[in-house]
């Protein structure tokens, strides 16, 4: 397992496509931060930082990289050779997910940091010297990353299930868009509540709700449950799937 993690981490470190995504995130965050600063959509770097975590574009970047990272290993026969050499499918799934989570954390935290810096340059980090907000930043940082961790596990499941770069990216990109649309048009309350279990919905709760139950406990619990369910399903599906 340790060697597999090292192998995948080395791939990530040398992956030019990952750096293209990082550059894209950087440019998008500069543009977004500049727009919010000029238009007055934020009043401080702190506000820009916490609001940026709920931006749906971050899920798109994660979806693209998960699809590419897993799908390219199938198309280049890397996974097939690993299985032939006796490496367990469970270890392959877990090692890839660990490295994909690292990539996701880099992507989703870079965006708020840059937007926060740009807001701070014009308005200061905090409009009022209330450093209790530092604790709020830590809360949002930790729980938002847990939500994105569970989102990464969903995209990884799709990658191993389809074994295709295009299919994984296509389905993954469609998921947050479809869920956002369904929340607005479906009148059935039960379905609306079910949709809130999706990690992106929980990220919004983290930012909007400051009470412990809705803003901390529920998102944390849901994210961890989704994460472990997705890992289990991925391993079960991959164990029984035929490798092309």
From TrEMBL:
<feature type="domain" description="ABC-2 type transporter transmembrane">
    <location>
        <begin position="34"/>
        <end position="237"/>
    </location>
</feature>
<protein>
    <recommendedName>
        <fullName>ABC-2 type transporter transmembrane domain-containing protein</fullName>
    </recommendedName>
</protein>
<keyword id="KW-0472">Membrane</keyword>
<keyword id="KW-0812">Transmembrane</keyword>
<feature type="transmembrane region" description="Helical">
    <location>
        <begin position="56"/>
        <end position="76"/>
    </location>
</feature>
<dbReference type="GO" id="GO:0016020">
    <property type="term" value="C:membrane"/>
</dbReference>
<keyword id="KW-1133">Transmembrane helix</keyword>
<feature type="transmembrane region" description="Helical">
    <location>
        <begin position="97"/>
        <end position="117"/>
    </location>
</feature>
<feature type="transmembrane region" description="Helical">
    <location>
        <begin position="137"/>
        <end position="158"/>
    </location>
</feature>
<feature type="transmembrane region" description="Helical">
    <location>
        <begin position="170"/>
        <end position="191"/>
    </location>
</feature>
<feature type="transmembrane region" description="Helical">
    <location>
        <begin position="220"/>
        <end position="238"/>
    </location>
</feature>
<dbReference type="GO" id="GO:0140359">
    <property type="term" value="F:ABC-type transporter activity"/>
</dbReference>
<dbReference type="InterPro" id="IPR013525">
    <property type="entry name" value="ABC2_TM"/>
</dbReference>
<dbReference type="Pfam" id="PF12698">
    <property type="entry name" value="ABC2_membrane_3"/>
</dbReference>
């Amino acid at each position: 397992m340790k060697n597999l993690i090292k192998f995948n981490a080395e791939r990530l470190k040398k992956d030019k496509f990952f750096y293209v995504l990082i550059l894209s995130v950087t440019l998008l965050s500069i543009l977004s931060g500049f727009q919010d600063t000029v238009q007055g959509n934020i009043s401080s770097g702190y506000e820009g930082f916490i609001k940026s975590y709920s931006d749906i574009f971050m899920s798109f970047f994660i979806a693209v990289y998960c699809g590419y990272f897993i799908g390219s290993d199938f198309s280049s026969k890397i996974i097939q050779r690993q299985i032939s050499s006796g490496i367990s499918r469970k270890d392959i799934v877990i090692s890839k997910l660990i490295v994909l989570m690292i990539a996701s954390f880099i992507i989703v935290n870079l965006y708020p940091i840059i937007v926060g810096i740009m807001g701070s340059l014009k308005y200061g980090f905090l409009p009022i010297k209330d450093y209790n907000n530092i604790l709020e930043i830590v809360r949002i940082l930790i729980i938002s990353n847990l939500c994105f961790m569970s989102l990464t596990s969903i995209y990884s499941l799709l990658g191993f299930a389809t074994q295709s770069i295009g299919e994984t990216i296509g389905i993954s990109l469609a998921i947050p868009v479809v869920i956002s649309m369904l929340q607005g048009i479906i009148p059935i309350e039960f379905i609306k509540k079910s949709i809130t279990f999706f990690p992106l919905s929980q990220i919004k709760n983290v930012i909007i709700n400051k009470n412990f139950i809705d803003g901390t406990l529920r998102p944390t619990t849901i994210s961890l449950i989704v994460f472990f369910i997705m890992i289990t399903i991925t391993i079960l599906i991959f164990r029984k799937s035929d490798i092309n």
